[in-house]
Amino acid sequence: MKTxxxxxxxxxTEARIRILEDRNAIDTAxxxxxxxxxxxxxxxxxxxxxxxxxxxxxTVVTVGDPAAGEQLRSALAMGADRAVLVKGxxxxxGLATARALAAELKDMGADLxxxxxxxxxxxxxxxxxxxxxxxxxxxxxxxxxxxxADGRVVCHREVEGGYEVVEAPLPAVLTxxxxxxxxRYASLKGIMAAKKKPLExxxxxxxxxxxxxxxxxxxxxRPAGRIVGEGPDAVPELVRLLREEAKVL
Amino acid sequence: MTEERxxxxxxxxxxxESELRPHVEQWDRDRxxxxxxxxxxAELGFFGMRVPEEYGGMGFDLGMYxxxxxxxxxxxxxxxxxxxxxxxxxxxxxxxxxxxAQKREWLGRLASGEVxxxxxxxxxxxxxxxxxxxxxxxxxxxxxxxxxxxxxxxxARLAGLGLVVARTAEDPAGxxxxxxxxxxxxxxxxxxxxxxxxxxxxxxxxxxxxxxDVRFRDxxxxxxxxxxxxxxxxxxxMEALDVGRLGIAAxxxxxxxxxxxxxxxxxxxxxxxxxxxxxFEGIQFKLADMATRVAAARAxxxxxSAEPSTSRSAMAKLFASETAMWVTTQAxxxxxxxxxxxxxxxEKLMRDAKAxxxxxxxxxxxxxxxxxxxxxx
Lengths: 249, 377
What we know:
The structure holds two protein chains of two kinds. By secondary structure, chain A is α/β, with parallel strands linked by helices. Helices cover 26% and strands 27% of the residues of chain A. Chain A has a single domain, classed as HUPs (Rossmann fold, 3-Layer(aba) Sandwich). In chain A, helix 3 (94-105) packs across helix 4. Chain B is an alpha+beta fold.
């Protein structure tokens, strides 16, 4: 069983983001980068699949500049077996990234290709489904849990108001969301072992990026809290707002 | 190596932030850690940091090791202490002086955390005067018998292996040599018949630590329980203390760093006279001095870990512990009345910091060691 997990280097979700003067990029100086959290769920899912089957190989792949090697090594430290760095621009054009990945993935012989549901930097949710399309593979998105048996994958998906279970033949592409797969810590041993695992660097297939960022701006400030009333009389209105506006009930 | 050290440090910080920090207040109140925490530490490999890879550990150098201890202490100082004692004394001494058979017997289990180590040196009459040990060990057939009472053994109840310093000669070389030459170190399984662990002590800070007196009532151990050369135990203990003190320095830097961060955030939130505290020069100067001393203590610790020596370990321990005491006291002051309350985190750090000025050689002893070193060529 060969599983490939595609991951992305993104700014730490807790970092304070500064926009550069010319307003079409963020200032990366001194910025801390991490593996996109949804991609970590995907790595965890792949490792658990390997552990439950007692066999298999987990390869992590990313498209990016050499600095993204740091994120590949984090995934190796968690337990992935090998890594491939496809050297190229991590582009805002999802299709360009997907093409670069698909060119690399098409000969890897993966049974399962996993992505995070989205990268937490640009939130586009494009690359996973596009790779599936380019490779002609079935794609299941927003998967909270899956099992593999008899050449098929059974996926549990989160849908509005509930769950559904779908199945697809392997090889397949899945995009993983937070569900069963709380990522493990890389152990100290894992970190030490990671340096001995293979990390291959390849040049990306030349693909044109047709989308560019025109401008960036900071989000507007969050609106202030609202007092809906006082005492027990306010409860029905509060419940209504929580249900209908905030949609948390 | 640098990226690895960074990754390892980050893992320790992440662990401290998610698994230690949220429980610190409760552990301080309950005087115990969740047992699950030690299991997690073991699973992630923290007990094997100083064990070489060939024996199932991580083989970290001292620099990496103290960086991790600092982060653990930033989370919960008593956790850092447990790991430090285990690593400096049990692992450190076995590694430096164990026979191959002794290493094979213990190091793997120490690395995995299946066995935690403790060190039994201090006694009622042997504190700063560590050579005044009265616990005795004598040969009996093929083995040894130990008898005596040790004080303030950290990890006492957690430990599966004790490294015990005992007197094997009353008058070494017929009284020709100092009393310190009559001491030896023994590897004592803590479940041996006759090992009695006294009540847990209640401490001012570091309240979750498992510290207690240990009585050895004619405890029988095999011949190969002797570690290193007979009569060389005092030198072994002092050698292990050099690494132990780096661990205490790391713990102190972690405590100081935590206090600095709390004070920094509080000064950014709290307003008085219509201004944030951080806008008052009196507070700015405090924060600046705190940050500077923490950075200096960490730099000294890193230098001592890169080129270890008895003097440098003593300097790092001395300076870092006094920094921790000073910085935590300033942090309480920045918080004002709230700082004195148990609802806020800084008074605990001040209590924790005090221990670092006392154990593994009081700071008075560190000064003696440092001064002595000045006259050694």
